[in-house]
Amino acid sequence: MATRIQAPSWAPTALTKADLLDMYRLMTLSRRLDDKEIQLKRQNRIFFQISGAGHEAVLVAAGKVLRPAYDWFYPYYRDRALCLALGMTPTEMLLSAVGAAADPNSGGRQMPSHWGHRALNIVSQSSPTGSQLLQAVGCAEAWLRYDRSGAVAGKPIKDDEIAYVSAGDGTTSEGEFWEALNSASNLKLPLLFLIEDNGYAISVPVEVQTAGGSVSKLVGNFPDLFVEEVDGCDPIASYEVLSRAVEHVRRRQGPALVHAHVIRPYSHSLSDDEVLYKPPQEREQEARHDPLTMFPNRLIGEGVATEAELDAIRRQVEEDVEVAVEAALASPQPKPETALLYVYSPDVDPASEQFDTEDDPQFTGDPTTMVDLLNTCLKDEMARDPRILVFGEDVADCSREQYLEQVKGKGGVFKVTWGLQRRFGSDRVYNSPLAEANIVGRAIGLATRGLKPVVEIQFFDYIWPAYHQLRNELATIRWRSSNAFSAPAVVRVTYGGYLKGGSIYHSQTGAVVFTAIPGLRVVCPSTALDANGLLRTAIRCDDPVLFLEHKHLYRQTYNKAPNPGPNFMIPFGKARLAREGRDLTVVTYGAVVQRSLVAAKQLEDEDGLSVEVIDLRSLSPVDWDAVAASVKKTNKVLVAYEDSLSWGYGAEIAARIGDACFPWLDAPVKRVASTDTFVAYAPDLEDFILPQVEDLVKAMRELHAF
Q1: Of 322, 294, 299, 301, which is closest to residue 310 (Cα–Cα)?
Q2: Is 477 helix (H, G, I), strand (E, B) or coil?
Q3: Closest CA to 25 of 78, 64, 66, 65
Q4: Residue 606 CA neighbour count, 13 Å, CB half
Q5: Which residues are designated catalytic?
Q6: How far from 42 is each of 95, 275, 374, CA to CA, in Å?
Q7: Which end of the chain is more exposed for a tag (fewer CB within 10 A), N or C?
Q8: Cα angle: 277, vertex 282, 285; to 5 degrees
Q9: pLDDT per residue over 53-87, tens digit each?
Q10: Cα–Cα distance between 427 and 374 in angstroms, integer?
Q11: Dihedral over alpha carbons 80, 85, 86, 87 (to 10 degrees)
């Protein structure tokens, strides 16, 4: 049984002798694992190493204050000591270092020190600096949304749980750090930020990174944010400060930020050499302040422990590490073919018959527009599943609820989300800051906790601040965690030209940038009916989906349809035969579908040609079977798309057709697309830049005559 010691002046009474000795054990274990990995790297038995040396004290303190498998954790690569304190074993860490199949962090898919452990609520970490911050905001926000929901059964939350997120001082230069602080404070979220300030971001010192050299001084005016600095090399002082911070957060008084001053006695990683930029006197000063030197000396000096007791701890740590090394080195590597697993959900296939009710629509009402049927789908799905949240810029009817009865309501700049807030409440439909990374990053955290965010990026042209979260985080989380975590969010975004006035920054397409990302489904309906069915599939599937909505198609009369009912779904990877033909095939999608149909009709009337038009609808996955069947029938194919001609989406389609269907081709695969420019404002320039009916007619005639 733990016995309470006579508390020295620096020891809070909550800590027993057993606690203090265990803190020393964990600190020693963390450092010894770093040293062992460095040795293994130099022996070419592992392939990378990045240490947490110098950070051990504050992290062990955090592990004592926080609750594994109760709280949620978004650590960064220096947080080895925290993960040990939470219950991760030395063997599990070294399994990561050797890239073993049994590695619980990633199954050998990520570098060492990229922590992740499902059983301990340690959410899979990636390499990009600071990208976890907004996800931690979403994780903490999940508690808020569940807590306020009366409709979700079996809520997966604890009453006073909190989320933890850590970062280095260099990361506080990232815009996403400030976005995270803004939303955490604005929503008064249960989130603890730990900034581990070792004075350097690789070789760049803190005074170059941060105005005034102290991030805690800069953040002092965020409302409800607890802020305190501490000597992070002192585990007792760290425990005291973190205890106060965590109490603030658990009491739902707002987020907290602890600014811990630590050291980095080793180089940034084994790919770095600190001697190149740190002078000897600075390194000597760090050595004197090393927590692995100071803490045991204090334990002995205050009579808490004897040298013999500490030596016994060191010997046990050494033995534990050696046993872990043997186990890790003997552990099998992943089988090569397993690299293909977990790019997408292994359990739910949105291309399966389960999602195909297209042949049995239950039509009601008059034909209506794409905007209306998207809105209808959202209403149906939100009524069906209380876990669905809708947020983004301007998506709510009115953020100031007291005015809801006095105004018509915004409901999105294109009215797709109009009326949702009034019907489902402001806890399920709400506006976000004007910050695209914030929207997607929070969605990842929310989806990881079992909610279903359907978020809106207002314009494709402004999706790029969110690309980091989309490419490096949303699309990779399942694969990089070896299926331990997933984030099946839906990201709706308007795109495209043909607007008469859209110009450069309201006419972008660029679908190929996203279809090139493994793990991300990309769909693009061209009709109101398809938009309704594909959005429903996107919401019900278990993968992240980028849902492209062409602005030009929102209110066209030619693509209207009646409401097909609340269970109408179109599976991904199923193309639509928009027009049957025998002389040549047009493969297309989006706004170019209607132009292709008009061109095909013109050719039939004027030349007697029979043109088949395939509407892909789903850009990733693609219905290659439908494309191949049509090409084998007509033997000539035109790929038409709104991206730029060079390097655009249609280039891959054309290449795949040339590769798979070459024996059936009677002519080269031809393409019609936008010019390799941007989209201009003047109508005549826009018409010249974007593919028009006359461009398609000309290309079809040339192809048929080949």
Answers
A1: 299
A2: helix
A3: 64
A4: 10
A5: 506
A6: 17, 18, 57
A7: N
A8: 155
A9: 999 999 999 999 999 999 999 999 999 999 999 99
A10: 21
A11: 90
